[in-house]
Amino acid sequence: MTCDTSETQMRIGEVAEAAGTTAKTLRFYEEQGLLPEAERTPSGYRDYTPEAVVRIDFIHRGQAAGLTLAQIKQILDIRDGGEIPCGHVRDLLDARLADIDRQIADLLALRDNVAALRDAAAEPEPETCNADEVCRYL
Amino acid sequence: MTCDTSETQMRIGEVAEAAGTTAKTLRFYEEQGLLPEAERTPSGYRDYTPEAVVRIDFIHRGQAAGLTLAQIKQILDIRDGGEIPCGHVRDLLDARLADIDRQIADLLALRDNVAALRDAAAEPEPETCNADEVCRYL
DNA sequence: ATGGACCTTCTCCTGTACTGGAAGGTCCAT
DNA sequence: ATGGACCTTCCAGTACAGGAGAAGGTCCAT
Fold first, then answer.
1. What are the residue ranges in chain A where pLDDT is below 70?
2. What DSSP element (H or E) covers B40?
3. Is the CB of B63 within 7 Å of strand D?
4. SS (H, E, C) chain A
5. Which of A39, B6, B64, B86 is surrounded by the most beta carbons within 10 Å?
6. Nearest-Cα residue of chain A relative to residue B98
7. Which residues of chain A lie closer than 8 angstroms to B102, CB-CB?
């Protein structure tokens, strides 16, 4: 069982498809420091190992949790530095949770306001609109 | 009682302060078509009537209802065209409400996911982290 | 007449996560 | 040798609502 790793090298398009994204996005991630600079073939093509797909999957899981690419990069940087990013992940998730709760509270308040305005505007008496105001419903 | 309207003219800075915004923002609104092109003094200064403040207040109320400037402009354009924008306002508020509800539902679902991840990450056993994965909590 | 506060236009920048396109190089099959 | 699919780089733009700052003109009081 000789396993030659060079056989498993992948071009950017293959990696992109395997990870469910596009080659352009992968170049963008590399530029942003989320993916390490890929090896190159003699002709300059990026040459990935299958681990790249794992890393991109992680990025997608982070995004699904509502983390920004900058935050995901922080985690990746810690791990790349040899440390275990659990503590940082915990902090980020805590902050993200507080943020989500705040957004939900804001949206619920906004919902009440807009619902009240909409109900007022639902009265079919446009003739009472005053030309002095732009719209009495807002 | 002779009322000379020219006495009530306002410079952009005054209008901005009265409306709780900045001169820069008012020039931006004008450029975007939310404010009509202001009269000019002989030296080129914008010369507003107090009605401008009313219009800016309306813009702010629209923003508070979560409308975009483009949507607010639609309302303003209808009114400026001599029509009563009640129906359109109603439609916009309806759409906005549906949008808010969707956002709230999305955030609640996201909240559950993130809370579950955070709870998992709260277990103080980082030594079980596997180096093969970037982070087992995400 | 000079300083400071205000005004004008102009262009570029912010953050987020990409996406589109141009111009050119490479790989492989026919 | 030629066509098409793939790759490379770089530049620019998307949506949103302004903000930053430069270079210059104006108004008013001292």
1. 1-7, 124-137
2. strand B39-40
3. yes
4. CCCCHHHHCECHHHHHHHHCCCHHHHHHHHHCCCCCCCEECCCCCEEECCHHHHHHHHHHHHHHCCCCHHHHHHHHHHHHCCCCCHHHHHHHHHHHHHHHHHHHHHHHHHHHHHHHHHHHHHCCCHHHCCCCCCCCCC
5. B86
6. A111
7. none
pLDDT of residue B133: 64
Q: Where do the domains of chain B lie? A: 7-83, 85-138
Q: Which of A58, A96, A114 sits opposite B100 (nearest CB)?
A: A114
Contacts of A89 in chain B (CB under 8 A): 121, 135, 137-138
Tell me which CATH code domain B7-83 carries. Answer: 1.10.1660.10
Residue nearest to nucleotide C5 (CA to C1'): B13
Q: How far is A52 from chain B (nearest CA, A)?
A: 11
CB count in 10 Å sphere of residue A121: 22
- Please tell me the predicted confidence (pLDDT) of residue B6: 45
Chain B CB contacts of A123 below 8 Å: none
* Fold (CATH) for A1-83: Multidrug-efflux Transporter Regulator; Chain: A; Domain 2 (1.10.1660)
Judge whether residue B4 has pLDDT over 50. Answer: no
